[in-house]
Amino acid sequence: DSASTNSIVSENSILTVNPAPTATSLTPSNTILDLGQYETYNVIISGGSSPFTVNLIYVNGPDTVNGIVAGNVIETLTSQSDGTVTFPSFNSFSTNGIYTFNVVATDSASTPVTFNSISSTITVDPALSVSISPTSNTLDANQQLPLQTTVSGGTPSFSLTYSLSNYLCGSISASSNTLSGDGSNTIIFMPNSAITSTCTANIMVSVTDSASTNSIVSENSILTVNPAPTATSLTPSNTILDLGQYETYNVIISGGSSPFTVNLIYVNGPDTVNGIVAGNVIETLTSQSDGTVT
């Protein structure tokens, strides 16, 4: 001051200066995912004054996320130090499309600093689904069956893998295939013609898509294969008879898939039988199982 003998006093202010805060490397666990899959975001906080309030912002997209409309906070976390901050996983995407997220954070400097990351965009595709047709079928050993797989949704391209549970029943024309987009693929089931009793086989198709974390779905077709049907021992009650006498025929049906429609055909003769001319059906019966038909 200005006293004849100057008085001099002093005081200190202690300042702590941290590097300017930044939020970098906002990284999704999946850049491409299917509806129903989970997404997790990480962001790296560096510099600044801890603790940090870190907000994950849903910036833009075709519909709500976790019930939140675009332009609002999805999740808020408090981080006690800089470093990697991981937000909880979420999967409540309402619609497929392109979604953009950002992080806005505030540090704890005496005058808090708010800072944000570079935004991150992800693509959400429709949920992957697969069907196989038919889902069940009964056929005979002398038949073949085409099975059509239809893939929809998901992230192309698609890898299809087929498996057969019982190779004693038959075989399939292909064990794998690919589709470049939604569509269909057909394989053929070929029964074992040598089987002597009914067998059952399950054909499963498994489809894997190309999302960042692959979606895998599967579907089954259950097949019942019967031995090839035969009609043997067509036997008359009389091999020689007189006009006015009665004739009865028996036939043995074996193999095949019941019920059976069995026709007795009048093939050839000098005149009509029961008023039926040669080359036509005399009688039609339905048999609920194989065995003797009279």
Structure description:
This protein has 294 residues and is mostly beta strands. It has no helices and 23 strands. It is rod-shaped.
Strand content: over 45%
Number of strands: 23
**H/E series:** EEEEEEEEEEEEEEEEEEEEEEE
**Secondary-structure content class:** mainly beta
Cα(first) to Cα(last) distance is 135 Å
> Looking at the chains present, what oligomeric state does this protein adopt?
single chain
Overall shape: it is: rod-shaped
* Overall helicity: under 10%
Please count the helical segments: 0
Largest sheet: 6 strands, mixed
Radius of gyration equals 39 Å
Low-confidence regions: none
Mean pLDDT: 96
List keywords for this structure.
single chain, 294 residues, 6-stranded mixed beta sheet, 23 strands
Summary?
With 294 residues, this protein is mainly β.
List the helices and strands and how they pair.
Layout: E1 22-28, E2 32-34, E3 41-46, E4 52-60, E5 72-79, E6 83-86, E7 97-106, E8 114-116, E9 120-125, E10 129-133, E11 136-140, E12 145-152, E13 158-164, E14 170-172, E15 176-179, E16 183-191, E17 199-208, E18 216-226, E19 230-236, E20 249-254, E21 260-266, E22 280-287, E23 291-293
Parallel strand pairs: 2-9, 11-18
Antiparallel strand pairs: 1-3, 3-6, 4-5, 4-7, 7-8, 7-9, 10-12, 12-16, 13-15, 13-17, 14-16, 17-18, 19-20, 20-23, 21-22
